[in-house]
Amino acid sequence: MRVLAAMSGGVDSAVAAARMAEAGHDVTGVHLALSRNPQSYRSGARGCCTIEDSRDARRAADVIGIPFYIWDLAERFHADVVEDFVSEYAAGRTPNPCLRCNEKVKFSAVLERALALGFDAVATGHYARILDTPSGTRELHRAVDPAKDQSYVLGVLTQEQLAHAYFPLGDTVKTEIRAEAERRGLSVAAKPDSHDICFIADGNTPGFLSAQLGEAPGDIVDAQGNKLGEHQGTHGFTIGQRKGLRIGTPAADGKPRFVLDISPVDRTVTVGSRAELAVERLTASKPRWCGPAPTGRLDAKAQLRAHGDEVSVAAWLDGDLVQVEFTEPTSAVAPGQAVVLYDGTRVVGSATIDSVQRVTAAV
Predict the structure, then answer these.
(1) Around Cβ 75, how many Cβ atoms within 10 Å?
(2) Which residues contact 261 (CB under 8 A, 6 or more apart)?
(3) Whole-angstrom Cα distance, residue 289 to residue 128?
(4) Residue 354 phi, psi (nearest 5)
(5) Angle at the Cα of 196 from the Cα atoms of 58 and 242, rounded to 5 degrees
(6) What share of the chain is helix, strand, coil (3-state, %, to 5)?
């Protein structure tokens, strides 16, 4: 096959490209320039959007012995990922920019361009597995290494996209990848993994959002509407947040308080106890299925955050919406995040959380 290997400048994508070339495919490496000003994004080993990263990717391609190009997708990335991130927080929601980047950039813009240029597939360094079925379809599964599994942020991929995607690292644990990179003579073998959000240079998300949205002071209140404190902008909070609330008055029971609700319209942040966070059901929109859409009631596992644990649920389609009911109440539920459904290790699909139904007895 003719394969386009997306190379971020890190060790994972370098080894993925090397494995595809070693398997006999005609591989071309491409680094995605995603920043309008690469020096303003992360530097060193903390991100994947810097000039340094593009140079690391080029050096890796030279060692592997494959052609290498840089594609400027900065405007697409800014519009589909950065602006979406800011607008979602402005609306009181908690987005996942990595998931959006996979959906809109890596497996939409890049894959479309690759196919138009005559490539057969795109390979990346994501930790996930694609399994071919006897019927000719492909299934997305969790990676062998649970600590590195990235199937959650890939749950937006459709069957058409999976047909042209390869994840060569899905069957390998991370420690073996670094050892392999060293054996192959790749200089990125010891390069630390990127962390946090690649387009926030210092890792200060509230500061980044304040610079984009400005300050909008408001009140922090309890579930009964009693004022407990003040804030400089609802965009500095997310559902379930415990730290950084800066409430002077302690709770009556002396226990920590958590963000229960965010209302940008009246600039109010509502806080309460852990029990008040408990959710028994959610409604999600914009479903994307990795295969056929489920029919009827689906007993499945769900993941609600990129590094969250699985929970048992029942899910069903309700017109254009997905209804999800939890077997046991859970508190890790924030509108704007994705709910990704699993059947064993297989990813069924993903949808964006719109609203939640809290446990009545807890309120």
Answers:
(1) 10
(2) 239, 268, 269, 270
(3) 16
(4) -100, -50
(5) 175
(6) 30, 30, 40
**CA–CA gap between residue 266 and residue 63 (Å, rounded):** 57
pLDDT tens, residue order, the chain (363 aa): 999 999 999 999 999 999 999 999 999 999 998 876 655 444 444 445 677 888 999 999 999 999 999 999 989 999 999 999 999 999 999 999 989 998 999 888 899 999 999 999 999 999 999 999 999 999 999 999 999 999 999 999 999 999 999 999 999 998 999 999 999 999 999 888 876 688 887 778 888 899 999 988 999 999 899 999 999 999 989 999 998 888 877 787 888 899 999 999 999 999 999 999 999 999 999 999 999 999 999 999 999 998 889 999 999 999 999 999 999 999 879 999 999 999 999 999 999 999 999 997 444
Q: Using an 8 Å Cβ cutoff, are 233 and 208 in contact?
A: no
- Whether 67 and 56 have beta carbons less than 8 Å apart is answered as no
Listing from the earlier edge strand, what are the strands of the sheet with 258-263? Answer: 227-231, 218-221, 268-272, 258-263
Amino acid code (one letter) for 229: G
Give the SS3 label for residue 129.
strand
Q: Is 358 helix (H, G, I), strand (E, B) or coil?
A: strand
Catalytic residues: 101, 198
